[in-house]
């Protein structure tokens, strides 16, 4: 995980330097302090996909380039075999597997997200990003906080929401949670 975070941080720094954007502007786009942003660039801090998504949209760069260092190449279709999608662990408890990383010009970003259980007293960061999100639970149970509401989703349950609302997910029952997340 540490190596992947460092590589993403290097790509963030390269993007900032090539566009001649200040640390302050990058931090504001991500919604974090300059200190936190510099830790992200150094691979020392959490890299929420929502923050990478905000940067990709603002600066017109593919989310895949930031996450995986590769530009999508396919235009007619892109097949991802079971367990073979490019992945990144953005936090100790979260793993994002891209299901369409090679398809260029896509209108949505689908991920298989694996969340490891945490103790109930560990804080969970709320995320926001532009657009909309669709989540479908495949395995385990999800505690979802969305705005001021709390939901429990079971396998097969889905939710579609405005992703600009603060939200977070947590695995329940001390079991691994897997869900399909599509960001539009």
TrEMBL record:
InterPro entries: Cro/C1-type_HTH, Cupin_2, Lambda_DNA-bd_dom_sf, RmlC-like_jellyroll, RmlC_Cupin_sf, TransReg_Diox_bact_type
SUPFAM superfamilies membership: lambda repressor-like DNA-binding domains (SSF47413), RmlC-like cupins (SSF51182)
Pfam families in UniProt: Cupin_2, HTH_19
Keyword terms: DNA-binding
One cellular component term from this protein's GO annotations in UniProt: cytosol
Alphabetized GO MF terms: DNA binding; DNA-binding transcription factor activity
SMART domains in the cross-refs: HTH_XRE
Domain HTH cro/C1-type span(s) in chain numbering: 12-66
Taxonomic superkingdom: Bacteria
PANTHER family: BLL2473 PROTEIN (PTHR46797:SF19), HTH-TYPE TRANSCRIPTIONAL REGULATOR (PTHR46797)
Protein name, per record: Cupin domain protein
Organism: Prevotella multiformis DSM 16608
């Amino acid at each position: 995980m540490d190596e992947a975070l460092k590589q993403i941080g290097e790509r963030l720094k390269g993007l900032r330097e090539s566009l001649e954007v200040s640390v302050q502007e990058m931090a504001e786009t991500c919604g974090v302090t300059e200190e936190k942003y510099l830790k992200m660039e150094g691979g020392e801090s959490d890299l929420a996909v929502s923050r990478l998504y905000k940067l990709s949209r603002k600066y017109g760069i593919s989310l895949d380039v930031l996450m995986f260092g590769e530009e999508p190449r396919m235009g007619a279709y892109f097949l991802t075999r079971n367990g073979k999608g490019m992945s990144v662990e953005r936090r100790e408890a979260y793993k994002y597997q891209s299901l369409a990383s090679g398809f260029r010009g896509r209108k949505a970003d689908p991920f298989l997200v694996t969340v490891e259980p945490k103790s109930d007293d560990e804080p969970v960061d709320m995320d926001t990003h532009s657009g909309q999100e669709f989540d479908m639970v495949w395995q385990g149970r999800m505690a979802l906080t969305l705005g001021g509401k709390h939901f429990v989703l079971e396998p097969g349950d889905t939710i579609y929401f405005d992703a600009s609302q603060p939200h977070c997910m947590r695995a329940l029952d001390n079991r691994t949670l897997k869900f399909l997340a599509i960001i539009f």
